[in-house]
Specification:
Elements lengths: L41 H15 L15 E3 L4 E6 L5 E13 L2 E6 L16 E6 L9 E6 L24 E6 L4 E6 L7 E3 L4 E2 L24 E3 L5 E3 L20 E5 L4 E3 L2 E3 L2 E2 L18 E4 L3 E5 L12 E3 L31 E5 L2 E2 L3 E9 L7 E2 L2 E2 L11 E4 L2 E9 L2 E8 L9 E7 L9 E11 L2
Parallel strand pairs: 10-12, 14-18, 21-29
Antiparallel strand pairs: 1-2, 2-3, 3-4, 5-6, 6-7, 8-19, 9-10, 9-13, 11-12, 13-14, 15-16, 17-18, 20-22, 22-27, 23-24, 25-26, 25-28, 26-27, 28-29
The chain binds zinc ion (2 copies).
One zinc ion binds next to strand 17 and strand 18.
Length: about 475
């Protein structure tokens, strides 16, 4: 699998603080099928983002309480709470700020406001943040994340021919140690949620129910173009770097990736890049000694302390284990998790991928409409699902939906076996990361579900 970043990524420049996820409205479904989660609400998010970005950066950290901006209090070494605005008025929603390196400066970063929206229109914000006092294991206290676990980005329509489950709104409460600390032993990852992305959608370990690698090999499961899918109780989750999650900052691959979520030990999970054009799993090269990722997928540097990286295309993709002392209340499986890191058991070839032969070109520049062609294989075998294998010839129709990474096709046409789509790639697209393609034929699956096809690692956005 090709995961190396392109060679033409330029030297680092200032980080752009815009991270607006520009996505078009989806086509209206032609029948009573469930709405695609949240897509229609993106215009609201877009308007609001302009405000969030202004609030996101306050000032360089002073390193002492005296250096803090007015209205900001310290919760731990890295977490701060802003309860009042600059004029001294109390904020309706306090802001939880994380002291982090952004570009070449240490900043207080508002990680969550981007996602603290009622994105599914049920009157409840997708993510709500508070904090509470400590316990014996974590005396500095906890950041409390209440989440609906509901994707605030376009997803495939579930159930479909690749997955019999539906996405359901959850009522999660997770506690992140405000002062994470390394443990003497690595805690083994449980099944179920192992951490949360900033949008409140959970990360799972790389294995599916049968214990086999869910991302590669013959047991690969059907993940949509945002690298997620729902399990039996409707929990939508990511098994690998979720290309659709935006932190408050874009990831142009020109410096260390921003934070995209947190593990249950409280340590942050960053995107894939360690430095300009170099992903963290490549940083064991001679020019960056000591930065090789450990088996948990983490490493420590002087500026950020210990942190994890996602590793697209390389096991364990998100976490390999917990290096820190976990908060066991976040997953019942942690009480009997034991110690050790997980090992890759991928074997053989994936059953997914037949159906889409090729996607061309393999790279497009950001900031504009791009035409992409998808070559289909007629008569291709179908993915076997938990409900039994679903087989049949490739439909003759024009696909009803195509999505590559976070980008939904705005126009779809078909000539013979070649589907031509148009994608609007935003200026601030994440650069260099290989994106997955999924394609749907409305109503062409068993029971009138959508027939879905998938091919991974087909396109990246490159300047
Ligand atoms: Zn899964
Ligand atoms: Zn790093």
């Amino acid at each position: 699998m090709v995961t190396d970043p392109p060679g033409n990524i330029a030297a680092s420049g200032p980080l752009k603080d815009s991270s607006v996820l520009v996505l078009p409205l989806p086509p209206q479904p032609g029948n009573a099928m469930q709405p695609r989660p949240n897509s229609v609400r993106f215009p609201i998010v877009l308007c609001w983002m302009g405000i969030a970005v202004l609030l996101s950066l306050l000032a360089p950290a002073g390193g002492s309480a005296e250096g803090l901006p007015a209205g900001v209090e310290r919760l731990s070494q890295r977490w701060f709470l802003r309860t009042r605005d600059e004029a001294g008025s109390r904020l309706n929603k306090p802001l939880y700020l994380y002291r982090d390196m952004v570009g070449d400066r240490e900043q207080y970063v508002d990680l969550f406001s981007y996602h603290m929206r009622d994105s599914n229109g049920d009157g409840i914000d997708e993510v709500r943040i508070s904090h509470e006092p400590g316990s014996d294991t974590h005396p500095a206290g906890f950041l409390v994340i209440s989440s609906q676990g509901y994707p605030n980005h376009p997803t495939a329509i579930f159930p479909n021919s690749g997955n019999p489950n539906s996405i359901r709104v959850q009522d999660f409460t997770f506690r992140l140690p405000l002062e994470p600390r390394l443990a003497e032993q690595t805690t083994r990852l449980p099944m179920g949620p192992i951490g949360t992305a900033l949008n409140g959608v959970v990360f799972f370990n790389p294995f599916e129910q049968g214990g086999m690698n869910a991302v590669e090999g013959y047991a690969e499961v059907w993940l949509d173009a945002c690298c997620g899918h729902p399990q039996q109780t409707g929990v939508y989750h990511y098994h690998k770097y979720p290309s659709c999650v935006k932190s408050p900052f874009q990831d142009d691959g020109k410096q260390h990736s921003p934070i995209i979520g947190f593990a249950w030990d409280g340590f942050p999970i960053h995107g894939p890049y360690e430095t300009a054009g170099v992903m963290a799993h490549q940083s064991d090269s001679s020019d960056s000694p000591g930065l090789a990722l450990d088996a948990c997928n983490g490493h420590a540097d002087a500026l950020r302390g210990y942190h994890y990286h996602t590793t697209p295309g390389r096991f364990p993709y998100i976490l390999g284990g917990y290096a820190g002392v976990v908060e066991p209340g976040n997953n019942r499986g942690l009480r009997r998790a034991g110690s050790g890191v997980i090992e890759n058991n991928a074997a053989g070839n994936s059953a997914i991928g037949r159906g889409i032969v090729a996607v061309r070109p393999g790279a497009v520049p950001p900031g504009g409409k791009r035409t992409v062609t998808i070559e289909l294989e007629p008569g291709a075998g179908m993915l076997a699902t938990g409900a039994g294998p679903e087989t049949g010839p490739l439909p003759d129709a024009v696909p009803s939906w195509v999505q590559i990474g976070p980008y939904e096709a705005t126009a779809i046409s078909r000539t013979g076996n070649v589907v031509t789509i148009s994608l609007d790639i935003p200026e601030d697209a994440t650069l260099g990361v290989l994106l997955d393609c999924h394609l749907e034929f409305e109503g062409a699956g068993r029971g009138g579900r959508n027939r879905v096809y998938k091919r991974n690692d087909v396109l990246r956005v490159v300047e």
